[in-house]
Amino acid sequence: MNKFPKNFLWGASTSAYQIEGCVEEGGKVTSTMDLYGDKPSYPKGITGFKEASQHYKYWKTDVEMMAKMGLKSYRFSISWPRIIKDKNGSVNQEGIKYYNDLIDELLKYNIEPIVTMFHFDIPLFVMKDGGVHDKNFVKHFELYSEVLLKHFGSKINYWLTINELNILVMMADGFEILEKQDLSKQLKVLHNLNLAQAKAIIKCKEICPSAKIGPAPNIATVYSDTCKPEDYTAKLNIEMIRNWVYLDAVCKGKYSNIFIKFVKKMGVDFEVTKDDLDTLAKGKPDFIAFNYYTTMTAQMPTEESIKENKEKFDQQKGLVVPGFGMATKNPNLQKTEFGWEIDPVGFKNTLREVYDRYDLPVMITENGIGARDELTKDGKIHDDYRIYYYKQHIRQLAEAISDGVEVIGYMPWSAIDLVSTHEGISKRYGFIYVNRDEFDLKDMKRIEKDSYYWYKNLIEVNGENI
Ligand code: BG6
Question: Mutate which of 160, 366, 423 to test ligand 1's pocket (most atoms within 8 Å of Cβ)?
Answer without folding.
Answer: 366
